[in-house]
């Protein structure tokens, strides 16, 4: 049994806390909202994100980061990507030596385009072997209902990946291991941008042919970027690639798809943010990923269109026309 500290009392952080507790670990959640923290500890429910779904009675929560991190064997990061750096700077002195750091975050940092594991190492100085990522098709609501799901956990050190795999195994949640941290992490971040595009197409009333085309060509963009950065192309055909891409693009439970739908129906970005109330990581990551692609000279036309719609006020309909008007090319070139 391990002591697992989950930093973040949002939708996915809460669901992962349930997984860790069901796997037999001692689990505590850090949250900033006293009401949510009290409800988790005393009523075993997160009323803001999973009303009506009970957590294991062993799970508790606190707003005190020192209390949460004390004695932690595995520290799970479940915060919005854009606030992570400031939180790590504030908390790094409380991290126990040799604790394993596991990121659930699917985004890149604005301004630097750094992946989450890179930020953790840069800010804390923790050994890269101890920093990994969990990704894949993991809609939090379904996991809270204990519906079957499979994901992948990636660490540079295969022994640590296997340790986390065993620590998080339950009858409804299955983990596979992977050594390609870059590929797994990049796939999890980039698919959110494609899901925004799919949501926009759906919100505009476009059909399944358009959706399938966006998903397929979106995957090509992700693979093109990942391989150029040194990722294993096979990672993108696995759970953190195709698996996560499909569920995020197709499920009504996907916050990025839902956000995109609102934009496609004519809402402004500010109106969509107010309506969804949860972080759609693809909104910020569209700019971060496009900046990264431009830095390496990688063409990502769908990502480019999403970034221009979200950050520059371009029209979704005009972007669809632009995508369809691009010059002819071979599919085999990705």
From TrEMBL:
GO BP: carbohydrate metabolic process; glycerol-3-phosphate catabolic process
GO molecular function: glycerol-3-phosphate dehydrogenase [NAD(P)+] activity; NAD binding
PROSITE patterns the record matches: NAD_G3PDH
InterPro entries assigned to the protein according to its UniProt record, in alphabetical order: 6-PGluconate_DH-like_C_sf, 6PGD_dom2, G3P_DH_NAD-dep, G3P_DH_NAD-dep_C, G3P_DH_NAD-dep_N, NAD(P)-bd_dom_sf
Single GO cellular component term: cytosol
Residue span(s) of domain Glycerol-3-phosphate dehydrogenase NAD-dependent C-terminal: 180-320
Signal peptide as annotated in the record: none
Residue ranges of every copy of the Glycerol-3-phosphate dehydrogenase NAD-dependent N-terminal domain listed in the record: 4-159
Record keywords: NAD, Oxidoreductase
Entry similarity comment: Belongs to the NAD-dependent glycerol-3-phosphate dehydrogenase family.
UniProt name for this protein: Unannotated protein
Source species: freshwater metagenome
């Amino acid at each position: 049994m391990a002591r697992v500290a989950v930093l973040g009392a949002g939708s996915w952080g809460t669901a992962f806390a349930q997984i860790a507790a069901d796997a037999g670990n001692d689990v505590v959640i850090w949250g900033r909202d006293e009401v949510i923290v009290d409800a988790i500890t005393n009523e075993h429910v997160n009323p803001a994100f999973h009303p009506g779904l009970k957590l294991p009675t062993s799970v508790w929560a606190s707003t005190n980061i020192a209390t949460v991190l004390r004695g932690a064997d595995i520290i799970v990061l479940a915060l919005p990507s854009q606030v992570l750096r400031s939180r790590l700077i504030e908390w790094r002195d409380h991290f126990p030596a040799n604790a394993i750091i596991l990121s659930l975050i699917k985004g890149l940092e604005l301004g630097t385009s750094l992946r989450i594991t890179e930020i953790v190492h840069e800010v804390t100085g923790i050994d890269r072997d101890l920093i990994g990522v969990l990704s894949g098709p993991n809609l939090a609501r379904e996991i809270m209902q204990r519906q079957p799901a499979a994901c992948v956990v990636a660490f540079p050190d295969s022994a640590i990946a296997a340790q986390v795999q065993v620590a998080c195994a339950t009858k409804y949640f299955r983990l596979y291991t992977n050594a390609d941290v870059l590929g797994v992490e990049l796939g999890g971040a980039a698919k959110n941008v494609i899901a925004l595009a799919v949501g926009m197409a759906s919100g505009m009333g476009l059909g399944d042919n358009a959706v399938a085309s966006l998903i397929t060509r979106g995957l090509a963009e992700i693979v093109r970027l990942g391989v150029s950065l040194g990722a294993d192309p096979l990672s993108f055909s696995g759970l953190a690639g195709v698996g996560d891409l499909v569920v995020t693009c197709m499920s009504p439970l996907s916050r990025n798809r839902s956000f995109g739908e609102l934009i496609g129906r004519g809402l402004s970005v500010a109106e969509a943010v107010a309506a969804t109330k949860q972080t759609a990581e693809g909104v910020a990551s569209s700019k971060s990923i496009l900046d990264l692609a431009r830095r390496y000279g990688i063409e990502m036309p769908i990502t480019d269109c999403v970034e221009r719609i979200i950050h520059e006020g371009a029209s979704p309909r005009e972007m669809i026309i632009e995508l369809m008007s691009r010059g002819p090319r071979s599919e085999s070139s990705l």
